[in-house]
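mind reviewing this stuff:

——
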Amino acid sequence: MNLKSIIPWSKEETGLSRRGVGEPLDFLQRRMNRVFDDFLGRSPSELWNAFDGAFAPQIDVSETEKDVRVSAELPGLDEKEVEVTLTGTLLTIKGEKKEEQEEEKGDYWHHERSYGLFERSVELPAGLDADKANAKFKNGVLKVTIPKKPEVQSSKKKIELTTK
């Protein structure tokens, strides 16, 4: 039996003839990911979260010489539904998102509820002063500021470059 007659692609088409490229199943996985990306504009993991109703807040982390700042988008929530903790260097934001929609027009009535817990953690650099951390919540945006300890702030030292 000639295997080339039953395989629907050649090594040249898949790129498998090049050194360091994975097996045919890797190729198939990449192609399927590309199909999802092209068709829906999202990766398979994003689609999974969208379909199972999971909510994961978007987080931005920035660092200055004096502190670390974390910003999280939590639309539709109020501060009573959000909990922020710092354990060592792990900052965790968790809460519960509750959403209800009701629409009534004549004979038509639509009622939808969506509830779910969420938790998002981010590892922060060492040397932060957890006792002086503060968090503000306004218009669905959480802003956490954690100052660095004085010894960490002053430990930065410029190293001179030489040509030798």
Summary: The helical segments are 11-14, 24-40, 44-52, 150-153. The beta strands are 59-63, 67-73, 82-87, 90-105, 108-123, 134-138, 141-147. Residues 49 and 99 are 17 Å apart (CA to CA). Residues 24-40 form the longest helix (17 residues).
